[in-house]
Design brief:
Blueprint lengths: L3 H21 L4 H12 L11 H20 L3 H6 L1 H25 L4 H12 L3 H11 L5 H28 L6 H21 L1 H14 L2 H21 L4 H12 L5 H25 L3 H6 L1 H11 L1 H13 L4 H10 L5 H13 L4 H23 L1 H9 L8 H10 L6 E4 L3 H12 L4 E5 L2 H9 L4 E3 L5 H6 L7 E4 L4 H14 L5 E5 L2 H8 L4 E5 H16 L4 H16 L10
Parallel strand pairs: 1-2, 1-4, 2-3, 4-5, 5-6
Family: Belongs to the monovalent cation:proton antiporter 2 (CPA2) transporter (TC 2.A.37) family.
Membrane topology: Multi-pass membrane protein
Pfam families: Na_H_Exchanger, TrkA_N
Length: 569
Amino acid sequence: MQDLFSFSLALLVAGAIAAAVASRLRLPTLLGYLAAGVALGPSVSGLLQPGASLTFLAEVGVVLLLFMVGLEFSVASLWATWRRVLSAGLMQMLFVGLAVGLASRALGVDARAAFLLGAAAAMSSSAIVGKQLAEQGELTVRHGRMAMAVLVFQDIATIPVLALLAIWARGGAPQTGAVLVEVAGVVVLFVVAVAASRRPLHRFMAWVARRGVEEVFLLVALTLVLGAAYGAHVLGVSPALGAFLAGIVLGESDFRHRMEDDIRPFRDVLLSLFFITVGLQVDAGQFLAAPLAVLAWFAALVPLKILLNWPALRLAGLSRADAWRSAVVLGHGGEFGLLLLSGAMTSGVIPAPQGQAALVALALSMGAAPLMIRHHERIARLLTRTAVHPAPPQEEDVGLRAAQLKQHVIVCGAGQLGRIVSQALAVAEIPHLVVESDYEAYQIARAEGLPVYYGDASRINTLRAAGVERARLVVITFHRSEQALRIVHYLRHTHPDVPVLATSLTDREARRLLGEPGVKVYVERLAAGLALAERALLESGVDAERTDGLIAALRETLQSPLHPAKETP
């Protein structure tokens, strides 16, 4: 199946079937994509062969994913914790890499091959962790942020490792200068991205947004992402890392959420191709030919790696429970490990029999990763051997404040809408607290003197710490529909008597939220339009009583299509 049209069609059909079957079985879609790749690959049916076209499309998917992960971070928060990021990432790679490398040497593996095997084992998948934590709403909690920080360090660490692999592949000896040049490229890229491009990019995106053409905004956003990735590639840096830095820079702009919504469909489609590509590289026959070798590598990539991750994360300052959570989240192999192994086998640095067993085990660990991340709380509970889990510091702060409150209001989000709601509640002397996961928005609200706390309101433990069982009302002011639905679902199942007010940007989001009882939704464009219409009627000489009646009738007419079977606000 060599022609590009048939090749692309087969991939899309395989991805759609895999996603549907995985959803039906209530499994992560990532597992479906990996299984589809194995089934279509050369070791099973042979319908598809790994090639340059597929590899490129898969890499673009990873680039888009890392860009959207970068949007969740802020330069201020990363700068404030860079020492911990450096120490956690360095220790994690040293602990795992040295253990696997020394064990390989003890088994008679060549020193160069042992080094590459250790480096490949130490790395985890940014694509899997980023996607799964985002779906679970845990990118901003402490163990999620530390896991992503370690992954960023791993991405940077791949640069000198790939430089060494290239030198060894050419039959040369590694030189310190060549490796330092690669590392310097990363530093230069980061400094330029943060210091030089921050304001110009924000102004440029504002200028594009004012043109009012959605297609132009989307194309410019995609151009910036791929341009950052290409710039990183030119400097010899991982393209995904370049996209991640672009996400950090643009994540502090006013267009963050719009870019997320526009790019998400492209990311999801192309990312599915990446995981199918991973499945294509798995030699299913290797498991039957050398099952003990594959199982030994799997043990090193999952249970042993988790055990070695934990002390590194504890030394970085995480609590006992959070260190176990992050250790489980990172307890699998990654795409850069696949890249190292496949490159090393192609160049002959690692013999094919040794490398293929590690490659199969690595792919198996990536297949198990979504389930491990989804159930990391349960696994951490087993490993800690206790039912008591200390809350992250952000939840402790919320809990201390909420312990003094009763019949209070919980405001989820400290954006412009959240701050207005908080100011109104303060004027009315109604006890309340605000929870915000965006560091910059948190700082703005704090500077305004609002009772804001840094945390993720879509996380169940945070809602519990905020005293949701004693609250009189929950107000959701952010525009992340999945997180908003998570809050609503939790409240409807555990605290159905607590009313919920939510905002939405689109009718589609409003309908999803209105599907739950006890929820009132205000579509922002509708609310703003009605307020403007009311002012227009009053300025036109219509008396206040008639204006109230006209606006009430107009509100009912406009809101009835959202959910005709229910009373709308």
